[in-house]
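Task: complex structure prediction.
Instruction: return structure tokens for all chains below.
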Amino acid sequence: MISEVVMPQMGADMTEGTVLRWLKHEGEAVTRGEIIAEIETDKANVEIEAFEGGVFRKAIASEGDVVPVGQIIAIVAAPEDDISRYANGAAAAPATDAKRAPATGAPAQTTPYDERPPTPPAPTARRAEPVPPAPPAAEPQTAPPRLRASPVARRIADERGIDLRLLRGTGPDGRIIKRDVESAPAPVTSAPPPQRAAPPAPLPAPTVASGRLVPSKMRQAIARRMAQSKREAPHYYLLLDVDMTDAMAFRKQANAALAEDARITVNDLVVKACAIALQRHPMFNVTIDGEQLIAHDAQNVCIAIALDGGLIAPALLDTGRKPLAQIAREASDLAARARGGALRQPELTEGTFSITNLGAYGVEALIGIIQPPQTAILGVGTVMPRPAVRDGGVVARDVMKVALSADHRVTDGALGAQFLGEIKRLLEQPLALVL
Amino acid sequence: MPDITYREALRQTLRYQLQHDERVFLMGEDIGAYGGSYAVTKGFLEEFGERRVKDTPIAESVVVGAGIGAAMAGLRPMVELMTINFSLLAIDQIVNNASKLHYMSNGQIDVPLVIRMAGGAGSQLGAQHSHSLESWYAHVPGLKVVVPATPYDAKGLLMTAFQDDNPVIFIEHTALYASKGDVPEEPYSLPFGKAEVYRAGTDVTLIGYSGSLHQAFRAAKQLEAEGIDCEVLNLRTLRPLDTDAILASVRKTNRAVVIEDDWEFGGFGGEIAAIIQEHAFDDLDAPVLRCSGADVPMPYAAELEQAALPQEADIVRLVRSMV
Amino acid sequence: MTRVTQQQRADARGSAGAGPDRLQLLHTMMKIRRFEEKAAEMYARGRIHGFLHLYIGQEAVATGAIAALRPDDYIVSHYREHGHAIARGLEPNRIMAELFGKETGVTGGRGGSMHLFDVAKSFLGGYAIVAGHMPLACGLALAEQYKGTDRIAVNFLGDGAVNEGEFHEALNLAAVWKLPVLFICENNRYGMGTDIRRVSSVVEVYKRAEAYGIESEQVDGMNVLDVYEAAARLAKPVRAGEGPRFIEAMCYRFRGHSTADAEFYRSKDEVERWRRLDPIDRLQKQMLDDGAIDEETIRTIAAELEDVTREAAEFAEQSPAPPAESLYRDVYKDPADA
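Output:
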């Protein structure tokens, strides 16, 4: 019977031992229990005994060898046993002890944690994008500080699509807490409401305590940009009345053929009219970069969308090349995303012209402030029935006042008058918007 | 319904157990002839005799160990340790034997043992007599830890302790023995692992147990006048812990304060805070706060001792800072 | 103390009639010896882990004492307990499986070498805290006294326990309440690596028990018949409710405290001297001299035990480990597990 003598485990933390001295040599008889070698561990020198009797057939480890626990160091067997498989010495895997890999001091085998961790993935393209310049409602170039909002406030804001940046916190240290989010009005879900509909729900007055007010980040950004615009761009203003009677009839007809959520609004008509007019009068589709003027091929028309505590004016991109129905759909989607805080980069940075429309609020005329780096903006008032003279008689017509504010560094009044007249003409002959 | 003391509530259950279960007997220092250091077993020696009510030497380790051994042999003993402070001398038996025998024996051995002890401070008994170490016992798997706050709790929870086949550490509060409350005359059990909503509220959850429940309740009354509506939870048992009740309450109020007599650092309040932030993170309007005992050995002087224990005013101040 | 002379013992054996079954005693001691040697080999081969405390040399104490008891007398032992377990009839297969940490072990792999429990055989552990088990023996005895039975608890302890507080608390309680405990101190002279003389103000352990008013004896723990006789005799008053008794059995372990022990603290000569008092050799010689046994029988027993222990190792090797899902089982007694 072959007995493999192994480097013994002599205590929980032993991992290897040194063969100091063989007390038996090849060919000598061994009885069970007899001491056959001296081993050195890190704690002491110990003697090891034979667990079985027989003949000491082969010393596999030599004196002085350091051997891991569990590895074979000698063979004791009967004289007739074939031990040729041990010819290669300790390299032979122990036959009876095959189930365990070289036993270590600790009971555990190698674990997945021994493996090298995978290299981290390369940074994605997203991170390579430059930080965008500040759109009206967004932050300036530095990274925004972490918003102080409680976990439950964040969760509710997330569920309801409320932009936490627009809220003022009333919790300790100005933390935004649940009641602040719960008392924020639900975002308005529709695009600028159709004319002649019931007046829209009024924007809630912000709750203002008396004393010093801390403006929100968005308000601060608007303040900076508007002040800059007024400071740097010499504004001139042109006003016109547009007879919208035919446009309103056209719109009604078009909407009868469209799905509910794809309806065309008055503003959509104005956007398309401006888009066409900008194609024909490209000087109003120019942005300023320092001393230089940049002419743009695409007409990216910004529409102003009111939010709680401010406004945002993202762009409908490439409106010149899009049909009216598509513009209507995209405007609706843009407004929803603006309220949900899900606008895209180009919408915030690539506008070339703006329209600001307070027609829904009954405002007769709106004279806008140009949004830098653009160089013109169209203000739109409400559509109101007014007396007009037609064919010698006084009739009621739907009239809408529009106001062009433009940058005198780029254009002057004569050019502006032509541009504005183009817009009027397009709106008064609405079929031109779809041809 | 009768209005009785916490002490009397305990006596009712002990008497019931001695009368109805032959396997039950009591052991402890001075529980017989002296009548019990907190008078819980007063008259029991005369009523039940020496076999059932045993006065022991001052030798906590062997007394608890003997209780464990007797439980292993099929009896249902109750060991009274005069106070939680002295239980330290028996910790080896409680932790190395009582809590582990069922597991180590692969389910062969049961230890149906009730160990009663009184904890808490407030009577100027000095540093060695004023511990609240329930968190140490609650830390050990294999033990159950019960912390009754009211006479109603005491009677019902002690009944359940005797019916449980596991070792139960039943921690009473020295300041509560004379407290009174409504307690049904008939015997009843209260389940372990079920907290009580002691006072319903909407703005903040005050979590207390044993002595601290009453601080929490008083603070809640004070805060009510300020328009802050507190929900007060009485844990009743620390192990098993009614996690569901804690989380349900926090989901409702979005704020929590744990009130405990025990030292703050490494105390049970930390465990409750960890559970809340792990499972109800998105329901929190404020971090979970603790109003605990000061991290000092308990001093003797009255003013110092009071300063070292959570007071109503501390709880009120904390809650105000959270809303 | 009652100092019983060798002559008195021999007379007692003579007058006791049949006396113990010496063949059975020999068989048990040889079984323990072979099992422990096998366990040592299995530890060296990395099959057994943690601590392994071998009983080699002390077989006479467990064998003699337990043979003198009733099968339902409680045994409460320390961590050097394999010998007591085998003497009480726990199966070598299941003990070895427990040492290997397998599901088929005595305690399902939960306990290991130091925590063997078999309630059906009244074998109640297996404890790792020195002297920590003594209060439990008092409690078991208390329960039997309470129930009015004549079942006793036998508490094996080492000389290392005699300075722990729990030793003194247990002796006192047992004495003052007259608990039916038979304490048996296996004095192998060393508490791990410390000679008892270096750390004990009173070295004779039996005197310490006498200080609590407990009748005590010192016996030759390397002579299984002496141990048997003393245990049988002293169990009687314990069983009769006369209070505890104490036996100090002088013995020696031939191996280290555990497998990690390099034995710096004692000389090879000393070990050799005690090896000459090997309890198995002595009983074999006595029985050979009496003609009660022949060499052939001894060889047959040895071969049989060879098979038994090899089989135990194979059984343990082939048994499954406890599944990871069982980790949380039995932390508490579930009322559903009635």
